[in-house]
Amino acid sequence: MPVILVASQKGGTGKTTTTVNVAAELSRLGHDVLIVDCDKSVQSASTWAQDRTQDDSLPRIHAVQKTGNVRETLIDLRGRYDYVIVDAPGHDSQEMRTAMTVADLMVIPVRPSQLDLDTIPGMAELVQVAQDMNPKLKAVALLTQVPTYSSATEEDEAKDFMLDFPQIPRIDGALKIRKAYRDSIPAGRGVIETANTSAKAEVQVLVKEIQAWL
Ligand SMILES: Nc1ncnc2c1ncn2[C@@H]1O[C@H](COP(=O)(O)OP(=O)(O)O)[C@@H](O)[C@H]1O
Ligand SMILES: [Mg+2]
Known about the structure:
By secondary structure, this protein is α/β, with parallel strands linked by helices. Helix content is 40%, strand content 19%. It has nine helices and seven strands.
């Protein structure tokens, strides 16, 4: 079953936020989801899954931690779940590179800032190399932490910049800066399990697009 890798070459781009929210929505849709947490940092996806167990009303989402070469683990686990979502560390890592040899779809969260955008050319090269070994790998970029105020030009500028890298098409949907994304994580929830209808709609659009890419 599909392996979705959420990775970027920078920390703080929104990998864990994307991972747990996509997992919660896929779970709501009735799928059996496993998170493979490859990041040892504190705000981790496996802590989120653990926190979630405190609330019996939330569907259980399994998470395992794995670092180093994750290729064989992913090959083994993909047969047992409807979706495996890999939350990569916040840098170019062995975990990211080995997961790229197995993944069906790589989702690259990018904030609309030049520092994040500057990682796209390097990512495009890495994807091309990985596709030699894993021809089914597709990679898409997801704009995250997009300012909500209407005068913001960052979003349009980022979209323009991203057009130059057709190897990594941009997912139409984007995740805006919303408190709900921050507050839901310590509660072990996805935003779809909160009252924030705007955030919920964003995640549902994202998951539909991800499913269409698979
Ligand atoms: N769309 C968003 N709106 C508001 N805060 C966000 C959003 N996405 C991420 N954050 C916050 O930004 C920080 C980094 O996000 P995180 O998902 O942990 O990134 P990464 O896993 O790539 O390091 C966290 O504190 C998170 O709560
Ligand atoms: Mg993270």
